Every structure is written in C-alpha cells, then in structure tokens.
Amino acid sequence: MARSKSPDPPADLLGPVQGEVSWFCCGTAWGPCSSTGKGACGTCNSGSLQHAWPNASDACWAITRPDSCGVSLSRRTCGFRHRITALCSGTSVVTAIADCGPQTDLFCGERSCCGATCASNRLIDLTPAAYSQIASLSSGLRPAEISTP
C-alpha cells in the first residue's frame, strides 16, 4: 500500500518524536570540520549548540519531505529550540535551528541502535558541538527523542 503525502506541512508537533540524530558541519572550522557555509538561517556554526530541522520553511519542506517516511514534524523556524535526548544514555542538549535538513526522505527506514534501543528515520542534524554533548562523533548516528525544552 502506498503512503499518501499531505500537500501541506504539519501545523504543530503534538509531542516528542523519536528518530535518528546525525551531525553535520557548518560555519567556521571546529573539531573535525573545515570552514563551510552558514546554513539556511545564516547563523550556523559547528562550534555552537545548533541543529538543522526538516521543516524550517516551505522551501526546506519541499526538499526534506519527512512525511514520505510517515513522520509529521511541525514548522519551526530559525532560532526555535528543541531538546534532543539520546535514547542510549539519557543525556540531552538544547539546540537552536540554524539550517534546513537532513533530507529525511533519503533515509526512510534507516535504523540506528544501541543495544536493543533503536530509532528509525533521520530527523535532525546537530552541529558537532551539540552532537558531542550526547554521543561520540565517531558514532555518526544515534537514536534520539526530539521535544520542546
């Protein structure tokens, strides 16, 4: 049975959502990152506690399409804060939206686990500074819960 796609992005996050968290580089050089662009919001920096969100704008939504994976994510714009809690360790970090991404529809069904704790679908990208607060950068992907602080 084919999944139906809603033509409009969801209006609100009804509660915490679980999915995969990954990391990406942006802004000035930091840790494993070289200097790169400042992201969709113009403020992204690898050394700051920030993240990329798949529904930061209409243009972002058109690229990332988390609904293709059966996931509803609310529209949240530059600067909005989320709490990301690693399901493996229980540690969390609060970060602000600074970019668009990840391209969730490319990762439908992708699954990361730590022991028996798993989550599917890449829903949020953290800067290396933020990701390193909840997991080792070498892990690359971790199951996490995304909520509002």
How does the major sheet shape up?
6 strands, mixed, barrel
Gross geometry: globular
Residue stretches low in confidence (pLDDT < 50, at least 5 long) are: none
Alpha carbon gap, first and last residue = 37 Å
The tally of strands reads 8
Average residue pLDDT: 91
Report strand order across the widest sheet.
1-7-2-4-3-8
Radius of gyration: 14 Å
Our estimate of the beta-strand percent is 25-35%
Helix content: under 10%
Given helix and strand content, the structural type is mainly beta
**How many H/I helices?**
2
Series of secondary-structure elements, N-terminal to C-terminal: EEHEEEEEHE
Task: Explain what you see.
The protein is mainly beta and 149 residues long. It contains two helices and eight strands. Strands 1-7-2-4-3-8 form a six-stranded mixed barrel. It has a two-stranded antiparallel sheet with strand order 5-6. The N and C termini lie far apart (37 Å). The model has no long low-confidence stretch (mean pLDDT 91).
Task: Give a topology summary.
Blueprint: E1 17-23, E2 50-53, H1 58-64, E3 81-86, E4 92-100, E5 111-114, E6 117-120, E7 122-126, H2 128-134, E8 142-147
Parallel strand pairs: 1-7, 2-4
Antiparallel strand pairs: 1-8, 2-7, 3-4, 3-8, 5-6
Task: Produce a short descriptive summary.
The protein is mainly beta and 149 residues long. Helix content is 9%, strand content 30%.
